[in-house]
Amino acid sequence: MLSFIANRLFQALLVMLTVALIAFSMFRYVGDPVASMVGQDTTPEQREQLREQLGLNDPFVVQYAHFVANAARGDFGISYRHRRPVSELIEERLPATLELSIVSAVMALALGIPMGIYTALRRRGVLSKAFMALSLAGISLPTFLIGILLILFFGVQLRWLPSFGRGDVVSLGWWTTGLLTKSGLLALIMPAITLALFQMTLIMRLVRAEMLEVLRADFIKFARARGLPERLINFRHALKNTMVPVITITGLQLGSIIAFAIITETVFQWPGMGLLFIQAVSMVDIPVMAAYLVLIAFMFVVINLIVDLLYFAVDPRLRVRSK
Amino acid sequence: MNTRIAPFFARAADSDLWHSFKRTPGAVIAAIVTLAIVLGAVFAPVVAPHNPFDLASLNIMDANTPPSWEEGGSPDFLLGTDDQGRDILSAVLYGSRVSLLVGFASVLFSMVLGVSLGLVSGYAGGRLDSFIMRVADVQLSFPAILVALLIDGVARGILPRDMHDELALYVLIFAIGISGWVQYARTVRGSTLVERNKEYVQAARLIGIGPFTILRRHILPNVMGPVLVIATIHLAVAIITEATLSFLGVGVPPTAPSLGTLIRIGNSYLFSGMWWISIFPGIALVALVLSVNLLGDWLRDALNPKLR
């Protein structure tokens, strides 16, 4: 097991270095970093001095090493547009995005898994058909359209919920949370539903497909032949064996929730990292784009690592093989 | 020519696929809706009641007209008009054109790229194979929309500003295309690994046919089944991705609005009660994506020998 973890860690490191290389090349070769930082009236000498100071005249490998070393310490330079350190901007925005993503993920899991199990067990039921129809709509409705529809009904027509922003936030040292105030919680409802709906349908369809597959397996037939109660077969035997692929995909989906938050944050003007990123893309604010890329990659790598380790907890066969 | 087409239709009408199609009402309805939208988009200049991009025919007095059945609506503008007096119905027809164009083109691009890399990867094996698959793994760990966004952002930085609008459509097709090749490559590689050891391929190799001819003439036709299913479902994804990027304001240029751009425009008028500007393009988008998804589902089941 130790060699497996070491191997995985090495792979994760490789992925991070590759992503850092892409981010670095973006920073270095898309546009001129010096031209983006200085004003019109800077003399060529001053520019050259800045160039030297930033280390832009060093060999490629040295610059890349610097970039990686700085990135590892959380230093991504200064945003072209905001004229502030990128790390500061991200630190401000991170809590908003993480709160939104985690609430959505919990919602998607808490609803998606039971719905998946139900539709697999009662395949011909009316409620199952309704869930399946809902899931098809969930996959075909683009995230932003769900957001717009919610705003139209609950924000504009009924005026029940705020349509944009994050409400009042409470500062807890380095973390600002909207979960402790009434307006913060109200503001969270629509964005969280928007973000969760697509993931929920994916999880539901996955659980259903896996469960149907497992229920056809021989060991389930054997369990039935032994006369075990249906409830025991479904939950002890079938569900357990469904969970391995479900954990993989769910882990990957958690990462994509953070990425899809870009869309939700744009629709609801939610002051998170996604909104920062999309503004950076349209303003060609390369340091912010590079930092976001590295950060997201880091989150993905960590999630993948956790998922791989969870396999050991869930699948005893892996434990035996690695001995 | 007629002598060649007639037997083709006779064969098609007798095929398993056609029989299964006829027996699946969902697929038939989906096909009709898709066909209607595609025809409406292709013949938009003929079908559309107005030309929304002809500045001379726009009249600011017509701006913000609600749909014809609402109070204050006008029979001239069936689905109402936007803030500049453009007819929504016409804008939707022209917008579907852009959406479908980007969708089909990027699927084609993904498919050609993914299938070629998958064939080469599976047939050549060794280092080339593991390199291509590593790249695929890394890309697969990022959501397609993020990859497309990054490519679009980088293109914005590289291309000069005035050229960007002109090239925006191609950049978008490239970005969405690149973000989707992995699935094709993985599937095709898997099937190629199976096919290359079969006797017909060995026989072809024995009589001295080159590897590229073998790939193209012998292996390719045998791995295309799953590719068609992926392509159909990918078309829905590509259309959604395009709409999303355009909605975020980094997609097609405003001079050629797609359905996503129209929804974006309408979004800012939502609060003043003018829901029709973004809802009708939204309905068109959902109808299109839903139908394509249904067709994809049906095709997947119909081509799956396990379910027969």
Main pleated-sheet profile of chain B: none
- What percent of residues of chain B are in strands? under 5%
Please identify the structural class of chain A as seen in this structure.
mainly alpha
- N- to C-terminal distance of chain A: 7 Å
Number of strands of chain A: 2
> How many β-strand stretches of chain B?
0
Helix proportion of chain A: over 70%
Cα Rg of chain A: 24 Å
Low-confidence stretches of chain B: none
Biggest interface and residues each: A-B, 44 and 37 residues
**SSE ordering of chain A:** HHHHHHHEEHHHHHH
User: In terms of structural class, how would the helical and strand content of chain B be classed?
Assistant: mainly alpha
* Continuous helix count of chain A: 13
**Quaternary structure of the protein:** heterodimer
Sheet of most strands of chain A? 2 strands, antiparallel
Q: Mean pLDDT score of chain B, rounded?
A: 81
Shape of chain A: globular
Query: What is the topology, as strand order, of the major beta sheet of chain A?
Result: 1-2
Distance between the termini of chain B: 35 Å
Structure in words:
The complex is a heterodimer of chains A (323) and B (308). Chain A has 323 residues and is mainly α. Chain A has helices at residues 2-29, 33-37, 44-53, 60-72, 86-121, 126-140, 143-157, 182-215, 218-225, 230-268, 273-283, 286-314, 316-322, and strands at 170-172, 175-177. Helices cover 77% and strands 2% of the residues of chain A. A two-stranded antiparallel sheet of chain A has the order 1-2. The relative contact order of chain A is 0.14. Chain B is an all-alpha fold and 308 residues long. In chain B, helix 5 (88-124) runs parallel beside helix 13 and helix 9 (181-195) runs antiparallel to helix 11 (211-248). Chain B is globular and about 75 Å long. At the A-B interface, helix 1, helix 6, helix 7, helix 10 and helix 11 of A face helix 7, helix 11 and helix 13 of B.
